[in-house]
Amino acid sequence: MVYITSWDDFVEKSVQLFRADPEKQTRYSIKYRHSDGKLVLKVTDNKECIKFKTDQAQDAKKMEKLNNIFFTLMARGPEADVSEVSGKEHMDAQPVKKGRGRKQ
Predict the structure, then answer these.
(1) Is 9 helix (H, G, I), strand (E, B) or coil?
(2) Which of 13, 29, 53, 64 has its CA 20 to 30 A from that of 38?
(3) Does residue 6 sit in helix, strand or coil?
(4) Residue 40 near residue 33, CB atoms below 8 Å
């Protein structure tokens, strides 16, 4: 169990771990401890385990990007290009609603 201190290193090693053997049960989990105010992300394949721990709220946005990267790898395959994956893809695809709603 290794804690990675840099977010970029954690994402890079997580993707490498998944791509090394995508047929294995590579998985990641997210745990938030409210009492400590800590967010812990863990990626494991039952042989190697890497973790990232933070108490910064801005890192929660980065977690969304990691989630999208793993969705892309699982859906398109391990050789998919994850460089264009961002955390705001689903926001751009939805049209803006204009109508006669109640203003608040």
Answers:
(1) helix
(2) 13
(3) coil
(4) yes
Whether the CB-CB separation of 20 and 70 falls below 8 Å is answered with no
Is the alpha carbon torsion for 94, 100, 101, 104 positive or negative?
positive
Closest CA to 69 of 4, 12, 1: 12
Q: Are 20 and 1 in contact (CB under 8 A)?
A: no
In the structure encoding, which two tokens stand for residue 54, read together?
């933070």
Helix (H, G, I), strand (E, B) or coil at 95: coil
Closest CA to 42 of 68, 17, 77, 24: 17
46-80 tens-digit pLDDT: 888 999 998 888 887 888 888 888 888 887 777 77
User: In whole angstroms, what is the distance from residue 83 CA to residue 69 CA?
Assistant: 9
